[in-house]
Amino acid sequence: MRRRPDPRHLRAGALAAGLLLALQIGSPLQAQTNPPSDSNTAARSSAAAAIPLADLLARALPHDPQVRVADALRQAAEDRLRQIRSRFAPVLGVATTYGRSQDAELFRSIDRTTDRAEATLRWNLYNGGADRVELDAAERELEASGEDLRRAREEVSERVTEVALDLARLDAQLERGEQRIAVIRRLAQQVSLQAELGRLSDADLRQATASLVDAELALDQLVGDRAGALARLAVLVNELPPPLQPLFLPTAGDGEPASLRASRLRAEAARLRVRPLQSVLAPRVDMDLRKRLSERTQPSATSELQRGWTLNMRFEFPLGGETVYRRDEVEHRAEAAEAEVMRQSQLLQAERAALAPRLQGAERGIVLVGRQVEQLDALVRSGEAQFEAGRRTLQQLIQAHEARLAALQRLEDQRFRLASARLRELALAGRLLLALGLAAEPNRP
User: Fold this and answer.
1) What is the per-residue pLDDT for 420?
2) Which residues, in sequence order, are CB contacts of 174 under 8 Å at separation 6+?
3) Pair 284, 331: CB distance under 8 Å
4) Which single residue of 151, 246, 376, 400 could bond 30 by disulfide (Cβ 3.0 to 4.6 Å)?
5) CA-CA distance, 34 to 176, in Å (whole number)?
């Protein structure tokens, strides 16, 4: 029988050609409930050098574009809050005047040169409470921008973790695929020896060869899928992903996502901006203080202002109703923000309701497939003995082995399904960063 190339060589070659980094990276993150294998010394050394996923995320999150956008908007909200607070302080100004004029004074025409400088201090004493309302609303919006930053970190962490879990699933399936090839190759060697002794026909040998080709094709497909997942993870974290430690995701518990908290805070800010009609129509009271700094007017005027103060009260009401319409606009925007909170809350409840059966189904599937694997293990052991005794055909024995390995792959798929559902549940509860061991907000210098 013609020898097939070693599937491990095929795997390494495909990864090197497809990504140019698979040979530089050790074993990736293992599945949630799949312990690392102790049969491979290289795998044990890679696991010893593995890092937690939280360390990789801590390096990747500050450079992610979505996180940078949210962080910049949060800093902008801080700057806006400082601007509004500054409105409670007076405004200091300096004015200079230089010019020439022709004045009539005591029936005489005088050419006068003016060179004057004065300092002013203007302080708004009352404007209907608009500044106080805007300050309270800006504080809510700053909290909302902080929740947006947390939401961005959660979404990026969720994407990276999902790819890492998928990579672990593919690694487990690659291991099953290599076991499948090893089993079929061993059976093919036995068939070849028995065919030489005349105990089996050439049809059995062809059957073993065809099954080996099918197993190698399936393994090549898994190699390509793993290379794609590895490339995607490298792009998301902006570096060559190192070996990662096993990840265990806890149950979520109660909570709400940062996006819902941000919407609720913005709705509160919008409602605060809806001022009573009497405060909108209230007058504005300003105080002006003036002091002359220098005066070089030639010839000098008969009277000159040295210092003084003025209390101004201004009441304006646009006859077209602009003030009332502006208040109506703010009120409608507040109603829209509150309705948006209700919409997001409804979608959150619907997704949580749909997620619960997925979690239960994945947990039940792991138990059922685990029992199936135990039964197939016993079937394979008895099938090996029956094949040696001549009471089971080669095709039946290969089918028993493939059924066992297929069940093991389904078990890994169920584990991945459970891990993905728990990942989404943690994100919906706003506890993903805590579960991954990350801070809710980035450290600031």
Assistant:
1) 92
2) 11, 219, 222, 223, 226
3) no
4) 246
5) 13
| The pLDDT value given to residue 64 | 94
Look at residue 304 and tell me whether its pLDDT is greater than 70.
no
- CATH (domain of 145): 1.20.1600.10
Residue 243 DSSP symbol: P
User: What distance in Å separates the CA atoms of residue 252 and residue 167, rounded to the nearest whole number?
Assistant: 23
User: What 8-state DSSP symbol labels residue 26?
Assistant: -
**Per-residue pLDDT reduced to its tens digit, 70-119:** 999 999 999 999 999 998 889 898 988 888 887 777 677 878 788 888 88
For residue 96, tell me if it sits in a domain: no
All residues at 6 or more sequence positions from 105 whose CB lies less than 8 Å from its CB, including other chains: 302
Residue 342 within a domain: yes
Packing angle of the helix pair 7-19, 202-237 (nearest 10 deg): 30
Provide the domain limits for residue 380: 7-63+137-265+330-436
| Tokens of residue 266, six digits | 């913005």
**Residue 152 maps to a domain:** yes
- How many whole angstroms separate alpha carbon 223 and alpha carbon 217? 10
Provide the sign of the torsion angle of the four alpha carbons 31, 32, 34, 39, taken in this order: positive
pLDDT (average), residues 202-209: 75
pLDDT in tens, 27-68: 334 333 333 344 444 444 455 578 889 999 999 999 999 999
Domain count, the chain: 1
Give the whole-angstrom CA distance, residue 252 versus residue 116: 71
Is residue 359 included in any domain, yes or no? yes
Long-range pairs for 365-371: beta carbons < 8 A, 24 or more residues apart: 365/410, 365/414, 365/417, 366/33, 366/411, 366/414, 366/415, 366/418, 369/407, 369/410, 369/411, 369/414, 370/411
79, HSE (Cβ side, Cα atoms, 13 Å)? 6
